[in-house]
Amino acid sequence: MTEDVLSLVDEWGPEKVVCVSDRRSGMRGVLVLDNTARGMGKGGTRMSPTLTVREVARLARTMTWKWAAVDLFHGGAKAGILGDPRAADKEAVLRAFARALRNEVPAEYAFGLDMGLTEDDAAVLLDELGDRGAAVGLPRALGGLPYDELGVTGFGVAEAADAAAAESGWQLAGSRVAVQGFGAVGEAAARRFVELGATVVAVSTAAGAVHDPDGLDVARLSRLRADVGDDCVREYGGVQPADTALTAPTDVLVPAAREDVVDDAVALATTARLVVEGANLPTTSSARKILAKRGIPVVPDFIANAGGIVAAAHSMDMRRSPFRVDPDDVFPMISTKLRANASAVLAEAKRTEDTPHAAAHRLAQQRVLAAMRLRRQLPPDTTLEPLP
């Protein structure tokens, strides 16, 4: 275990890995503070029965680049709990996790929402520590900004896709979109794609996929999801295997579920002209190389799905304020920042004949490195090589 954790460390981080457990509840979890040169660690908290320390560390590193890419002053971090988010003892596990991290929260990290956690869960974490600064993503009744209800991340994914299509010389309006994953991000993205004039032709959940080359009724799918969750695709009718959304004929492919779902086979088969990473780390490195050779740009996750952290930044700023965060302040900033970043990254990739991921990493790494130098965290003559 120690050797495995130490193998995660490179010149950028992580600065701290805290593994915690509780005998009574059976809770096991981890907090990874990756790089806080630009500010306090901030990232979501997930719960999964297959969670690993390495998985959380990868996501924490993504947060480091995401905060830097949107030029907001927090550091990369992530937390996770090993367990079933549908289990009856979830609240007891959440409370044990919060207690175990009271030395780090909220001084070094604030809980947020990720896979397996809801706004009600954020309320439990806050209640356990008795500090309004302990969590963001709270229900509206506690003064929070309900990210999932508002669909801020998915909204930003669609905005980034629209800007990337324009940068590539074609219009999103009238184009076909396939969304793999119809959760909080995928559903909101699909709704915004429709508003922007695109046609959503495929959608998937863990229960399967639906595909219609003439366009799906996204509003109906959203209503069904509210009633039956992932089974919305079954209730819609004509359910197909879940991977259909990854291979359906489309102009824009949006993987918005789990890591590494766009592999070599998908990269070779897709008809998409543009891939927009709605999930964190949804494309493998080898798949990105294949897509690059095929001339298909990929908008990186920490560029495309940064809408959630723009909202989180507003919430972090207002954690102890008696005033609510105004969504009217959040959405315009998401649109402005994500559109500008998507266009800039694709333009830089074209100029340097490199991949958008490489261009985006250079932008983020330059900002983090500047902060590390100013804080004397490195010897003056240190040069860190860009990471792949």
Describe the secondary-structure layout.
Blueprint: H1 2-6, E1 16-21, E2 28-35, E3 41-42, E4 45-48, H2 53-69, E5 75-82, H3 90-100, E6 109-110, H4 119-129, H5 147-150, H6 152-167, E7 176-180, H7 184-195, E8 199-205, E9 208-211, H8 218-228, H9 232-236, H10 244-247, E10 252-255, H11 264-269, E11 274-276, H12 285-293, E12 298-299, H13 301-304, H14 307-317, H15 327-352, H16 356-374
Parallel strand pairs: 3-5, 3-6, 4-5, 7-8, 7-10, 10-11, 11-12
Antiparallel strand pairs: 1-2, 2-5, 8-9
Active site: 78
Domain Glutamate/phenylalanine/leucine/valine/L-tryptophan dehydrogenase C-terminal: 144-376
GO molecular function: glutamate dehydrogenase (NAD+) activity; nucleotide binding
Low-pLDDT stretches are none
CATH class of the largest domain: Alpha Beta
Major sheet description: 6 strands, mixed
What is the number of domains?
2
Strand content: 5-15%
Mean pLDDT: 93
Structural class: alpha/beta
User: How widely separated are the two ends?
Assistant: 26 Å
By CATH, the superfamily of the largest domain comes out as NAD(P)-binding Rossmann-like Domain
Q: Quick one: overall form?
A: globular
Helix content: 40-55%
- The total count of helices amounts to 16
Rg to the nearest angstrom?
20 Å
What is the string of SSEs from the N terminus onward? HEEEEHEHEHHHEHEEHHHEHEHEHHHH
Say how many strands there are: 12
Proper CATH architecture of the largest domain: 3-Layer(aba) Sandwich
Fold-level CATH name of the largest domain: Rossmann fold
GO molecular function, one term: glutamate dehydrogenase (NAD+) activity
Binding site for NAD(+): 153
Site (Important for catalysis): 114
Pfam families: ELFV_dehydrog (PF00208), ELFV_dehydrog_N (PF02812)
